[in-house]
Design goal:
This protein has 14 helices and 10 strands. It folds into 2 domains: about 35-145, Non-ribosomal Peptide Synthetase Peptidyl Carrier Protein, Chain A (Orthogonal Bundle), CATH 1.10.1200; about 150-480, NAD(P)-binding Rossmann-like Domain (Rossmann fold, 3-Layer(aba) Sandwich), CATH 3.40.50.720. About 40% of the residues are buried. The protein is globular. It has helices at about 20-25, 40-55, 75-90, 95-100, 105-115, 150-155, 185-195, 215-225, 235, 255-265, 300-320, 340-350, 375-390, 455-460; strands at about 175-180, 200-210, 240-245, 270, 280, 290-295, 325-330, 395-400, 400-405, 415-420. Helix 6 (about 150-155) runs parallel beside helix 13. Helices cover about 30% and strands about 10% of the residues.
Length: about 475
Amino acid sequence: MPLNPNGKIDKPALPFPDTAQAASATSKPIETSSSTIKGNPTEEAMQDIWASMLPNAPSPMPLDESFFDLGGHSILATRLIFEIRKVFVVNAPLGLVFDQPTIGGLAAEVDALRNIDLGLAYKGTDSSRLAGAPGVDDAKKPTMTQVEYGQDYVNLLPSLRDSYPVLPVDFASCPLTIFLTGATGFLGAFVLRDLLSRQTEVKKVICLVRASDVEQGTRRLREGSTDRGVWDEQWITSHKLEIITGDLSQELFGLGDDQWARVAREADVVLHNGALVRGLFPIGSYRDPDHWFPQVHWVYPYEKLRSANVLATLTAVELASTAKQKALVFISSTSAIDTEHYVQLSDSLLQGQSDYEGVPESDDLEGARATLKTGYGQTKWVSEKLLFEAGKRGLRGHIVRPGYVVGDSDSAGASLMRAVKSDVGFYFYWCSYEYRRLRLAHGQRLCPAWVGTEYQQHYQHGSCRSRCKMCLPSRDLASS
């Protein structure tokens, strides 16, 4: 399928349907079925909304076809919810279209919401079940109960160890082996390139890739990095890059016991960059992973993202503490502090009402404990809080919150432009536009897990990329 620069399906570039196929389709007799019969007033109004929003909307609009099968995607889904709120004057949740992706299902939910005005209890469908979501058979969809993310953090605290040992004495002097997740993502490709460009600091990178086998995983990683202009085939031939297959949402990342034990012995750093930010929108066969394309779903609820984002973080912590102690680097998001509390805090800092230059390092994230709106931000909040606690118990590592991922100054690919600084048990970095607030320390050991930004190095230090490094200070996290 043709892709646009964002990695999504380039629909305008698709060829026109074969004329014989089109003629065959138009020659079929029209059959009356439950999917095309006239609906009730709510369903008819919903049909009009879909017809005005979907590209190449069918006519008549079927009542039992998925919004996503008819050409909808996550951005249109969000627009659809706002249109439903306006037309029907109901407070429809953002995830409703994923719960009920058909006109019949959405209409039933809207009618149920309207019953609130009559004093009747609203009993919506399970918001985490995602009935009818693309690529998943109804019989195989697990039913999940709604989880309050602040309470879930408390419930998950016993999953942490009572204490974590110190790093090996040679950690700061030997080339490191990095276990990396999320390397096939937009930012992950540059993280991988940054790590493997450090000839003396990095010995090897082990990438966890979701694929049916190593060959497919290698092809997927190669294609993604090549598209972004950062692939080097020498990584494979020199054996500095190893691809293993797994899944963030599974126990032990989907690795077998033997492979888990081997990785635990070899790795010195766990760089956890992977997360479920996006769903998989299938093109063609639903059961063939080669036909799955990523679509960003910011409206997915916490329950849907919990396994791949929160439980995977706990798995990363466990891997960092198995066989030998490792440093853990967690790539978070500013979505973890996307609340009014931090907006006001930022305003006060910018107005000079504080001695801090960014979110205080002593901040405990309690300002976002119950007011985050997106499931993705909620999973990042819980993950960070768990890592804060692990840091108090001795785990060493870093947290980076990328703000904006924008074009690289040379290749127009992705590079980190800004991050929010905060430090509570783990290191955080404010990588400001002027690059002034990030400390450079020549001669210190460079932590290879840091995500470098060529853009800022170029404009702050000219062409001295090979000499100027962003160095991480050495600090006892247990004292934080």
